[in-house]
Amino acid sequence: MGLRWLEAVLPLGIIAGFLCVMGNAQYFIHKAAHGRPKHIGNDVWDVAMERRDKKMMEMLASPSSSSSS
User: Fold this and answer.
1) What are the two backbone dihedrals, phi and then psi, of residue 53, each rounded to the nearest 5 degrees?
2) Does the pLDDT at position 16 exceed 50?
3) Is pLDDT above 80 for 56?
4) Per-residue b/e over 20-47, b at no fewer than 16 CB within 10 Å?
5) Which domain of life is it from (predicted)?
6) Average pLDDT over residues 1-27
7) What is the separation of C-alpha 67 from the centre of its chain, rounded to a whole number of angstroms?
């Protein structure tokens, strides 16, 4: 009678295990698709700043036509 709580351990372990598996699957799928971990709390402002930064880095990396003359 004292070990009755053991009946709940197996279903709890199964549920917790599947939650961990699904969380890690999301992480690894996103990392494989985008090449970096998911940024938590990424809003419209963050997306706009990432686009701006990417555009600025591309502009700096490309040779400008005015400086090559």
Assistant:
1) -60, -40
2) yes
3) yes
4) eeeeeeeeeeeeeeeeeeeeeeeeeeee
5) Eukaryota
6) 91
7) 39
Give the position of tokens 């690894």.
Answer: 28
Q: In sequence order, which residues have a C-beta less than 8 Å from that of residue 30 and are 6 or more positions away? A: 37, 38
- pLDDT-based confidence at residue 69 (cuts at 50, 70, 90): very low
Decide if 69 contacts 63 (C-beta within 8 A): no
At residue 37, does pLDDT exceed 90? no
Residue 1 scores a pLDDT above 70: no
Measured CA distances, 19 to 12, 33, 41 (Å): 11, 21, 21
26 contact partners, CB below 8 Å, separation of at least 6: 38
Give me 20's structure tokens.
């961990």
Residue entry with tokens 């890690």: 24
